[in-house]
Automatic annotation (TrEMBL):
Domain of life: Archaea
HAMAP family for the chain: Spt4_arch
InterPro entries: RPABC4/Spt4, Spt4/RpoE2_Znf, Spt4_arch, Spt4_dom_sf
Source species: Halobaculum litoreum
Name of the protein in question: Transcription elongation factor Spt4
């Protein structure tokens, strides 16, 4: 599967393919080298969100290299 979206190395937020900086935390440390993701639509109701330090709804990469 070709995946050209960019995951943030800082917060794991999955950004669009043309992103220059992370929409979630503003970091410019983005990478195409990531695997798997979870969609967290309601961080306040999610059990995994606190574990991943997620407070913004969105897609988050599970593994970022
Ligand atoms: Zn980020």
């Amino acid at each position: 599967m070709a995946e050209d979206r960019l995951a943030c190395r800082e917060c794991h937020f999955v950004n669009g393919p043309d992103a220059q900086t992370c929409e979630n935390c503003g970091s410019s440390s983005l990478t195409e080298d990531w695997a798997g993701y979870v969609i967290i639509p309601h961080p306040e109701k999610s059990e995994i969100a606190p574990e991943m330090n997620v407070s913004t709804p969105g897609s988050y990469a599970l593994k970022v290299r």
